[in-house]
Write a structure and sequence with these properties.
This protein is mainly alpha-helical and 238 residues long. The chain has two domains: 80 residues, Winged helix-like DNA-binding domain superfamily/Winged helix DNA-binding domain (Arc Repressor Mutant, subunit A), CATH 1.10.10; 146 residues, Up-down Bundle (Four Helix Bundle (Hemerythrin (Met), subunit A)), CATH 1.20.120.530. The strands form two sheets. The protein has a three-stranded antiparallel sheet. It has a two-stranded parallel ribbon with strand order 1-5. A hairpin with a 5-residue loop joins strand 3 and strand 4. Helix 4 packs across helix 7. The chain is globular, with a radius of gyration of 18 Å. The relative contact order is 0.15.
Length: 238
């Protein structure tokens, strides 16, 4: 069985903000991109050297990631990267469907012309990037960013900070599964056609059609992860 081998997706240099905020961002990204693999024990001494921060700062960041579902704790045994499982993946998909569809309907009811313009612009940026990558398309940091911007733009007019926060947490947990799937996938999977259909339904204010497309999109992504053999023993990730 093949083991995942990845390098950090983004630079580990500090980029503004408080030290605690920065290390939280870096740790989160490295867990999502499998620099720290599912089930891996997060050893303070190694992390301290890698991120260049104190034990207290690390503990604060890891406790926050535990609240986000990306890290687990086992009594006095310390912190571990949350394991992956079929049950967890499908549970995340179910929860995302509930939140995304609620946010989408709210946004489509309340969104104005500037909301539509932002959706079109976000789709255009994502589509152009995918075209430039051609047959070599994989999940990259740039694609991740533009993909998130597109999905965020769709629901930006929902006007609910609480729903937005919960939605973002689930989006990030789902992104970890997509990232692992992209690492082991043998063939590129161009997604712009799916996103175009979604964008057109939203812009046309066809609420039920847009919700159906969004639900299908979320569930198909989860099934594609399973299809890649990720969770049935085809790939060793821990």
């Amino acid at each position: 069985m093949a083991a995942l081998s990845v390098t950090p997706a983004r630079s580990h240099s500090l980029s503004g903000g408080t030290l605690a905020t920065d290390v939280l961002r870096r740790l989160r990204e490295d867990i999502i991109t499998c620099v720290h693999k599912p089930g891996e024990k997060l050893r303070f001494e190694a992390l301290r050297g890698f991120y260049g921060v104190s034990y207290s700062t690390l503990r604060e960041a890891l406790s926050r990631l535990a609240s986000e579902g990306l890290v687990t704790t086992e009594g006095q045994r310390g912190f571990y990267v949350s394991p992956i499982s079929e049950e967890d993946l499908l549970d995340i998909a179910d929860a995302r469907v509930v939140l995304e569809l609620e946010c989408l309907e709210r946004a489509m009811t309340r969104g104005k012309a500037d909301w539509e313009a932002n959706i079109l612009a976000a789709f255009h940026r994502l589509d152009r990037l995918e075209d430039s990558m051609g047959e070599e398309l994989r999940t990259t940091p740039d694609w991740d960013d533009l993909h998130m911007q597109f999905h965020d733009a769709l629901v930006a007019a929902a006007e609910s900070p609480t729903l937005s926060e919960l939605r973002h947490l689930l989006f990030e947990r789902a992104r970890r599964y997509r990232r692992i799937s992209a690492i082991v996938r043998k063939e590129p999977r161009k997604k712009s056609s799916e996103h175009r259909v979604m964008m057109e339904a939203v812009i046309s204010r066809d609420v039920q059609n847009a919700k159906d497309i969004m639900e299908r999109h979320i569930r198909e992504v989860a099934q594609n992860v399973l299809h890649n053999g990720l969770l049935i023993g085809a790939v060793k990730v821990a």
